[in-house]
Amino acid sequence: MHREAAAVAERPETMAARTVLSVENLVVGYPVDGRMVKPVDGLSFKVHEREVVGLIGDAGSGKSTAALALLGLARPPGKILGGRVEFDGRDLLKLPEAEIRAIRGRDIGIIVQNPRSSLNPMLRIGKQIGYAYEAHNQASGTEVRRKVIEMLRMVGINDPESRAEAYAHELSGGMAQRALIAMALSSKPKLLIADEPTSGLDVTIQAQFLDEMWNTVQKTGSAILLITQELGTLANYCDRVLVLHEGRIVEDAPVRQFFANPQHPYSQQILKLQRERGHSLGLPPVEAGTRPLLATTDLRKTFAVRHTKKLIQAVDKVSLTIGRGETLGLVGESGSGKTTVGRCMLRLLEPSSGSVVFDGEDLVKLPPNDMRRYRSKLQIVFQDPFDSLNPRWSIRRILTEPLDLHTKLSTADKRRRAEELMDLVDLDRALLDRRPRGLGAGALQRINIARALACNPEFIVLDEPTSVLSPRARVGLIELLVRLQKELGISYLFISHDLTTVRYLCHKVSVMYLGQIVETGTVEQVFSKPRHPYSQALLSAHLFPDPTNRRVDSVIPAALEGEIPSPIDLPHGCYLASRCPHVVEACRATPQALEPLEGGQSVRCWRAVAGEIQAFGGAHA
Amino acid sequence: MSSQHTLETADMLPRRRRDWLFGLGLTIVVIVVALAVVGPYIGPYDPTLTTPNVSVPPPSLAEVPGLFSAWISGTLEAPPHWMGTDASGFDVFSRVIAAPRTDLVIALVANGLSLVIGVFLGLIAGYYRNAATEFMMRVSDVMQSFPVFISAMVLVALAGRSTTNIVIALAFVYTPIYVRLTRAEVMSQKVRGFVEAARALGNTELNIAIRHVLPNSLTPALIQASVTIGFAILLTAGLSFVGAGVRPPTPEWGLMISTGANQIILGEWWPSVFPGIAISLTVFGFAVLGNALERRYDAS
Amino acid sequence: MLKRNALLSAVAVATLAVTAAPAAAQQILVLAEDVPAGLDYDGPSAAIPASQQGMVTLMEPLVGYAAGPANEDGIGMPDFSKIEGRLVESWDYDPATLTWTLHLRKGVKGCDGATFDAKDVAYTFARAKSVSGAAPIGWFLSNVASIDGFTPAVFGDDPKAKELGDEVKIIDDYTVQIRQSEPNALFLPVLSIFGLLVYDKETMEKHATEKDPWSHDYANTQNAPGFGAYCLDKWSKNQEISYKANPDYYRGKPAIDKVTVRRVPQSSNRAVVLRTGQAQLASGLTPKEFDSLRTAKGVAVGGVTGNENLFVHMNFAAKPFDNPKVREAIAHAIPFEQIIKTGYFGQAHQWKGSVPSGYPGFKEAGQYSYDPEKAKALLAEAGYADGKGLEAFGDAFQLSYVAEKESTLGPIVNIIQSSLRAIGIPATLNPIPQTQYGDRQLVKGDLPFAVNDQEKPIGVDAGYAVQLFFVSKDKGGLNNMVNYSSQVVDDLWAKARIEPDAAKRTEMLGQIQDQLAADVAWLPVVEYKTQWAYSDKLKGMRWYPDNSVRYFDLSVQ
Amino acid sequence: MLFRYISKRFAVGLLQLIGLTIAVFFLIRLLPADPVSRLVGMNASPEAYAQAAKQLGVDRPLLAQLATYLGFQPEIAPGLLQGSLGVSWVTGTPVTAEIAAYLPVTLELVTLSFILALAVAVPIGMFGALNPGGKADKGVFVYSLFAGSQPEFWWGLLFVYLFFFTLGIAPAPLGRLSPMSSPPDVVTGFMTIDSLIAGQFDLFVEALHHLMLPVFTMAFILSGPIIKMVRQNMARALQSDFVLYANCAGLPKRRVAGYALRAAMAPSMTLIGILYGFMLSGAVLTESVFSLGGIGQYAINAVLNYDYPAIQAVVLVITAISLVVYLALDLIHAAIDPRIAF
Asked: B297 near B219, Cβ under 8 Å?
């Protein structure tokens, strides 16, 4: 499928294609407290026929506002203040209401980043797609119906007849996004605007979805304006890159050229890690053979299902070791239990069984008061920086809270320590008297880290600390974490679904699936020679930001099929058996154990241990 | 952040207009609060002493300037009855401006009482969810399902007409609202990251509940309070109107409307109309303020 | 016209009814504060005037006062010196045996066709003595009249005490003998009161059940069968009650064929509708409303200084009201004229006495004048110069009054309150619901300070009023709400009660009233007119001591 | 599914009502009022007082009284279990019968007021939301805040003064019909409906005429919160992602407006339910201004007369109706919005 499409598609960059969309000096403003704030301020660019153009920029750079403005729309009370949006030779902004309505959806389709809320919650999916189709095409009821089913099938929805009867809230995020695409493409638009279409989707589905969108568009012959914050998406699907910064385009380059030689300082910043290739980040080496700082043994955590006697197996016999100054990456899809492992290690959740030995002491057995004392040594940084700081406290109070709890420092000393901490995380001391509100995600996450560092911990759980950050902030945070480890010798448990970041930051990595660790090894081992079928699938689905090895140009390995089994009724044998491309009958019957391989790698798959599964090395390592 | 801010405050009216309305509301409330302090002392007549002049109509608008200058220059024997007098001979104006002392104090104390009790119970019920707090919520449900006006009326009428009993009755009907609001907010706050972070830092649960969860759970209750003050004034006046409110001759707007009500059908409108305007504006003022607070909260 | 009517009725009521009855069916709409809640005078709503109005409309007393001349408003007045027969045609009294022989009227028919005879009278007394209802009014009246056997023993455990013995004896179908236990002049006056109206035994017994042998349920919720001028037509509680004329009424068929009484609780509303001409009669308006109707077109307002009055109640059991100087000080602090003007629009006069001034045996006593200076001096004499020291009594100066009467009493209590404050008495107001007022006044007797305008002794006799209100509780004082106790009064009443000589009795009653005034037993303020507003086409209004209208008297011109 | 949901709601509601019954029962008996003296009235002796107390059964222990009230002692008197709300202590009539006579008056008033308020407020609120920030929208907004914070009894009086006393175009505030008209036979208890059933069109017109001012008054007060809610929900719906997306997809304007309206009405149902319950209880004031003999007037009488069975019944019945209305509106909400799961 992919190969076929790739072969058919001609690379537009090689030919002088017709211009589909031409934007000139577009300005969009919102009234805020009597002033006009202009998230889009002088935007100009072109999109050619059949071209896939990527538009990247930080959160708040005006990407979504720009996308809507291309249709002549602004989210109320915003207004398009000026400029031209030329489509097919006509300026959309000057067209009468009825004509522009006819163009929307028919000539320009759009999919947006929040598919479920963009579907009318009160209408069945099929009906909504039908309305969109009817709005632009003459068709009888049965024709509309047929078209709807056809579109749903085309975007990769199984059983479209029954899915058409579903409501938005009954669909998964990926499914809703597909329905949106079906609606956007139903009238075969000449241009598809895709505004962060995969945000909120799981890694494996993300790639699958983008593949399908790319394929479908190749078939309908539309051009795509793909808006994203992910370098991986850009590298793998786009022909040309537009960089949006402070409301205007600051760089416009073919994708390879962009990655190889970014011109604008902003582009250089977000590509810094790519160009330095991880190794130069200078991860401090770990001393081998010493006693591990922290080790969990057979950690289990179950949750009771309300109103039943059933249990959810969230974490199943997880054993990990982390040495001093070492970073262990814990990867897996959402629901794999990786976050629960982090919480259990710090007893923010009480483990159901197993031990967590920290520096020779089993934390699980500590009485609550003693555990509280230990907390200065073990810290955590959460995923959502906006949520993890008390909004009513000043930064100073936030930073001195751990000192109040664990030290007997004088007030002056605490003040001094708070200032030190700000220096440590590269933040302006002047922020100390502000409240978290109004600060950006990057700054807030640094404050979270500073708070965690306040009492000189030896170990920090980093629970997806970069996932909500914009590209630039993400780079900065990764650098900070590496630097802190180098300077302070802290150990990290780095929980993430973003393999690119894990590769930069971790010494070792463990892959989790349904509460179990299915593979552990050094980053080198796991990324270049994943042995477990699940690890292989995860790596192959990951979009590495490397335009020289584009997903759309290569063979896509077999993906996992079907849905993740419910963690309530887990299969007796291998948990992956129902989805594994390598499954044999024995897999379903035998529970799998984590078996060591050569070189310290271990894997929970008897076929991999037996060498029956090829170590898949074709990915982007 | 800023663009998000823009989107969510979209419902806000443009600034100038908001200020105009907000200014009006604030002015009204400030005046009423000021009258609650000094109102009983600044009127031309004692608000609880009758004058021999019964059912005197207010001066017509045309007469007002002349009367005013005569009054200022001291040529009048007695101050004019700006709003007339009622059937007992009370000076309506003096009573209208003395009434906030009664109405506002009842509304504030009742609200404060139910706010404190409600927030306390709501915090406990939201933070510690067990059989006892669940039972408490069921009791609160039952209390909340009481028909507001009738319950207040029953309570005051059977317990006896006194300011204290009115306050208790209002607190009784309002407390469950605060319990519920606070509990819901506590439940959504206690799973937030900063609470878990506080736990990870080694705070005790009590500390977390009081220092982290409580301050962040107060807003809905406080907004509700700003709205409820207005409604408490309405309820107080309504109780007086049906004869289950404060005792005469306490200057109280509802009571004044009620005593004037019998006369209105005979054309004596002033004893009821002036206090009515006072209630109308006061409650409106509080509604404007409450609304402004609500918007600010929604926006953040 | 009015005058002629009044004259006529004074001469012969029966003739009037007959001559005034025109060919066309007459009907009127009456607006009342309420319609009867129940019609059983031994039942739970006996105390409510609206219910009493229903009872007197449907039932007939044994005797009544003769008609006197009309007053200045054209309202017919009773002649209290002359009691005449109603269901009783004539009577004899034997002082030796204390026995009354009643000769009953023949040929009187009730609404259900029953004919009145001695059994009905006996039934009525037997039912009263059974004290089976919620409020034993019949027993109470009989007891006041010293009918033998009607003692508090009926409330004891002995069932025999509740049964009617030979004190009420049927001699023949139309003769009944009733025996007293002692001489008591109140016998005949009491028989005229609504609490001893005669039941139609036959109909009552038809509706008796085993659980309710005296048909209280029926009388209270369905109908009170008697021998009155009207029959019950339709009765929806809290809304409306309508009566149609009893064609067989012994005094002739009433002129007005149908009377509809509608409940309009707000007095102002009654006034408005009457003004529109949609209704013909309204009662219980505020003085102000009556005043405003006086000038309205097509509306007449008439009133009677009958037995309604307003007094200040100061409880002897509550400090500092036990101090006679304080009582006197307060008595001189009441601005009577202002109250009459503001509170009653002139339709009242200062009450100088302790019983209604129109009642037999009344003596003018107690000349309190409005004199704040004197009041202040008296207060100082009492030891509370300028009110200093009175704040210690706190709640005692809460002037209680019936909250439901706010629109009438409001201005008055406000004036009293203001006047008392002017001499330094820290008076406040305390409106309490009628129920609570009644409870505290009667049962608990703990109202310290109150304004009361609802004590109208229905027994038309100064002695009745004295026994009701002023005799010590342990000497048989029935409604001594201020806990007044005077040896002088008690002794005089003990003698006067059984004094057969009318002149001597009046003499003693006069001495009692002097004593009451000296002690400020009550602080009488005004006697106010009982008023009605009615269509100027409605003729024949008469006043009765129970303040209920007899629709039989009325006709439309 | 639906049936299970409804029966579950009924069960919960029933439990709530039982809790309420017991709470009210004890609450009013804890208060320092003495219902007995009300009944014996003037000139009562202590003997008569005791007699009356016995008649009412208030001489028995509280728990025994409660048991009787709930219907566990049908041999003494029928109780709730037997479908009886007791007998009024004042009139001696079964409370159920009295409530049946009073309740329709209030229901008619409140329902008509709601219909009028909705008919006026929904378009106004939508108009405001469709023209955000405009002069008209400002006006609508200020009006909604104002109307929602007004003392209805005062407005009722003002209307009486204006329309009855001054202009003479409204009837006297004297009830449901003019005093001289005799009401039609009671079928539903709704004067408007009963007069039509009886075929008396003149009575129907008269009933409407008498309902005019009270319905005006209540609809005026009600319109405030309803406009505010509709305006807010509509504005929210118009700003929602799916309306924006419907515009992006080029759907016709009418269709988009339809999306928004439906989305705005769904969450409004809950508030309408709460308002209905609130008005049912708050109708006391309007009823008393216009002398409509509704449940509110009944409540006032019951309270002033210490008629405990009647007080209990009023609270119980109003709450029960409110619960049923909540349920009905939740069902409508669920019918509009498929996201509401049972």
From this structure: yes
Residues 32-51 on D with a CB inside 8 Å of B are: 32-33
- Is the C-alpha dihedral spanning B161, B165, B166, B169 positive or negative? negative
Top pLDDT among A582 and A420 is at: A420
The predicted model scores a pTM of 0.82
Longest CA span, chain A: 80
Tokens 């930073």 — which residue?
Answer: A399
Q: What is the secondary structure of C457-510 as a DSSP string?
A: -SS-SHHHHHHHHTS-GGGT-SS-TT----HHHHHHHHHHHT---HHHHHHHHH
* B260–chain C nearest CA distance, Å: 9
Dihedral sign, Cα of residue B159, residue B165, residue B168, residue B173: positive
Q: A509 or B3: whose pLDDT is higher?
A: A509
The identity of residue B145, as a single letter, is S
β-partners of residue A295 are A321, A357
Give the closest of B197, B198, B215 to A392, CB-based: B215
Say whether pLDDT at A462 is over 90.
yes
This model of the complex carries an ipTM of: 0.80
**DSSP run (H or E) holding C304:** strand C299-304
Confidence of residue B103 (pLDDT cuts 50, 70, 90): very high
Question: Residue A269, Cβ neighbours under 10 Å: how many?
Answer: 15
Nearest to A210 by CA among A529, A202, A598: A202
Sequence-distant (≥ 6) Cβ neighbours of residue C280 within 8 angstroms: C28, C29, C30, C274, C534, C535, C537, C538, C556
- Give A556's DSSP letter: P
Q: Degrees (nearest 5) of the Cα angle D260, D262, D267? A: 105
Give the tens place of pLDDT for each residue, A224-250: 999 998 888 899 999 999 999 888 899
Beta bridge partners of A40: A28
- What gap in Å lies between CA B187 and CA C547, rounded to an integer? 66
What is the C-alpha to C-alpha distance for residues A468 and A389, in angstroms, rounded to an integer?
A: 15
* Residue C315, φ and ψ in degrees, nearest 5: -85, 120
Neighbours of chain A (3+ CB pairs under 8 A): B, D
Determine the pLDDT at residue A12: 45
**Chains A and C contact (Cβ–Cβ under 8 Å for 3 or more pairs):** no
Sheet arrangement for strand C523-528: C348-350, C523-528, C309-314, C449-452, C398-402, C428-432
Per-position DSSP letters for A242-311, written without gaps between them: EEEETTEEEEEEEHHHHHHS--SHHHHHHTHHHHHTTGGG-PPPPPTTSPPSEEEEEEEEEEEPTTSS-E
Q: Which two tokens stand for residue A489?
A: 């010798």
Among the partner-chain residues D138, D153, D322, the one whose CB lies closest to the CB of B257 is D153
Contact C406 B52 (CB under 8 A): no
Confirm if A502 and A471 have CB atoms less than 8 A apart: no
d(CA B59, CA B121): 53
- With cut-offs at 50, 70 and 90, classify the pLDDT of residue C311: very high
Q: Lowest-confidence range among B177-181, C396-400, D270-274?
A: D270-274
Beta carbons of B177 and B115 less than 8 angstroms apart: no
Tell me phi and psi for residue A356, to 5 degrees. -130, 100
Q: Which residues pair with A300 in a beta bridge?
A: A353
Tokens of B91: 């000076």
Question: Which of B153, B231, B283 minimises the CB distance to D303?
Answer: B153
Residue B14 DSSP label: P
Centre a 10 Å sphere on the Cβ of residue A9 and count the other Cβ atoms it contains.
Answer: 18
Residue A293 has pLDDT above 70, yes or no: yes
Residue A367, both tokens: 């009485």
**Tokens representing residue C30 in the block:** 């009456």
Contacts of B193 in chain A (CB under 8 A): 382-384, 387-389
